[in-house]
Amino acid sequence: MSGLDNLVVDRAIIHVVEPTAAPVLASRQIPLTGTARAARISRFLRAHAVRTWTDSGSHAARFTNQSPGSAFEHCRAIISTPNDFIPRSQKLASLLQRSMTAHPRITPGNLVVCDCSDDTDRYIAFLKLDVSSGIQRHIEGNEVDLIDVPELLPDEDRELQKAAVIVSSEDFDFDMRVIDRQDGEVVAKFFQEAFLGASIAYTPTYLTRKLYDSTIFAGRRLEKSGVLSPRELNDLTGRVAETLQHNSEVVLDTWVPQLPINEDARNQLDQLVRKRLPESSFAIDRQEADRLRQTSYFVGYHGIKIQYSQEAIDTGSVT
Question: What's the distance, CA 254 to chain centroid?
Answer without folding.
Answer: 18
